[in-house]
Structure formats: C-alpha cells, structure tokens
Specification:
By secondary structure, this protein is α+β, with helices and mostly antiparallel strands. The protein has one domain. It contains one helix and eight strands; from the N terminus they run αββββββββ. A five-stranded mixed beta sheet has the order 1-2-3-5-6, covered by helices on one side. A three-stranded antiparallel beta sheet has the order 4-7-8, with helices on one face. The radius of gyration is 21 Å and the shape is elongated.
Length: 151
C-alpha cells in the first residue's frame, strides 16, 4: 500500500510540473505570434515606403494607408478591426486591433499573467510613428513578457 501511495504522489507531482511547463510554452508561443505579427507589419511599412518613393516620381501619388493591417496581403486571422482604447471590452482575447484616434495597434492578451511589466495590463499597445523613412512601431510602455522585452 505504501508503494502505491508513493507512486500516486510521484505521478501527481510530475503532472503538476508538466502542466506548468505547458502553460509556459503557451505563453512563449503567444509571444512569438505577437513578435511575428509586428515583424510582418514592419516589413509592410518598408514595402509601402518603397512603393510610395517610386510613385512620388510619377503623377497621381496615392495617400498612405492609416491602418497598417490593410497593408498586409491578408490581415491576421485574429485581426478584430478598428476599436477605440475604451471599447476593448468588445474584443475577444488574442486579437489585434487598430485605434484610428491614437494611430496605435493593440493586442489583447490571452494569458495576461505572463506580462510582468506593467502590472495588471491585458492589452499591449504600439504607436505608429512617421520618422524619416518608413513608418515604425514603438511600444507605448516597456512591456516585459516572461523576461523578454516586447518591441
């Protein structure tokens, strides 16, 4: 009977450790997806800048696209659309949004417990700015996600 008790305790401890590691990997996967989308948007900014540079030498220059998700060939499947910072309660977790008022993009976290800084944050926001050259994406705050800076 003692051997069975030890075996049950050992299995429970291993299941707990495995469950914790699964949650950590899920957080890392979500971070990788965020960084991948940010990378795709930055690439789209560079391509748009190059196209605008070429078009500026030709008559009939088109205006720049305000919503960066519309620059992509296909927006991410989890792009929810245009939402104000104040209307984020209508967005499902793990969704990207564009706020036209502040010209920011936001991501509503599925697992906000992995965001260490700033505390009690469920949405990470990035401002779109226009330095010389292509548009850029900069975080509104210093976001620390599982020990890594999100930018």
């Amino acid at each position: 009977m003692v051997e069975w008790g030890i075996l049950v305790v050992l299995v429970l401890v291993l299941a707990g450790v495995f469950g914790r590691q699964v949650r950590v990997v899920q957080g890392q996967a979500e971070l990788a997806a965020v960084q991948s989308t940010l990378g795709a948007l930055r690439t789209a900014f560079v391509i748009e800048h190059l196209q605008q540079t070429v078009k500026s030498t030709q008559p009939g220059v088109a205006a720049l696209q305000r919503n960066p998700f519309l620059l992509l060939k296909e927006p991410p499947v989890n792009y929810a659309g245009e939402f104000s910072v104040l209307k984020m309660d209508a967005v499902v977790p793990r969704s990207w949004v564009f706020d036209p008022d502040c010209e920011c993009i936001g991501y509503l976290l599925l697992h906000p417990q992995w965001l260490e800084s700033p505390p009690d944050t469920a949405v990470v926001w990035f401002r779109i700015s226009a330095p010389p050259g292509p548009l850029s994406i900069t975080p509104l705050h210093t976001y620390i996600w599982q020990g890594q800076v999100v930018n």
